[in-house]
Amino acid sequence: MEKIKIGVVGGLGHIGLIQAACLAKLGYQTTAYDNNSFKMEIILRGKLPFYEPGLEELVKETLKSGFLTFTSRSEDLGESDLVFICVGTPSLPTGEADTSQVYAAVEEVARNRKKHGLAVIKSTVPVGTSRKLTAYLEEHKLSANITMVSNPEFLREGSGVEDFWQPSRIIVGASSEEAAKKVAGLYRPPGIKTIITSWENAELIKYAGNTFLAAKISFINEIAGMCETVNADIRIVSKGIGLDPRINPYFLEAGAGFSGPCLEKDLKALINQFQKTGRKAKLLETVLEVNEGQRSAMVQKLREQLGSLKGRRIAVLGMAFKAETDDVRDSHSLPIVKKLLSLEAELSIHDPWVKGLRQAGLSEDELPGAKWVHSPYEAVQGKDAALILTAWPEYRALDLLRVKDSMAYPLVVDGRNIFDPQDMRKLEINYVGVGI
Ligand code: UDX
Question: Rounded to two decimals, what is the model's pTM?
Answer without folding.
Answer: 0.95
